[in-house]
Amino acid sequence: MLIRRETPADVDAIRAVHAAAFATTTGEGATVDTTPVQATPTQATPAQATPVEATLVDALRADEGWLPAYSLVAIDSDGQVVGHVVATRGWVGGAPVALGLGPLGVLPGWQRRGVGTALMHAVLGAADARDEPLVVLLGHPEYYPRFGFRPAVELGVTPPQPWGPRYFMARPLHAWRESIRGEFRYARPFDDL
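RE: above sequence
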């Protein structure tokens, strides 16, 4: 497995990864939920054949908060995309000093094989290397502490409405400053969820 930046040729494969990953409730690739009322992966229903995560990445690409350096894919030995993670510009207290991580998805056949973990380490490493101070996500509070995430409110960063603080987590990086405090705002496409 290799982790690299997304290319234009990966767009359809990325959409397929998220559609497959979030159509099920199992596996490490379906751990970052982007819906405001749940903290477990969404399930596709007959009325919603495509999970929101599958189209969210497309909307994020068209947004001013898109940061290509943080859209990473995991590829297998045949060059096929098997996982994807993205982080986009986020704001704390109105300042562009954070990243909003998600979605993170892994094809069901590749889940529980370390792909999600590798993607998480890669995106956090890239963010730290580029002097980003903070990464936030909505996710399971028993899964993400292994990557250094903790409740964002402990850092003085509050979740955007209507998301509550239980699943809103943050990971300070080397460029973190105590003065980074206030309400977090995701890139605009998250507002449409």
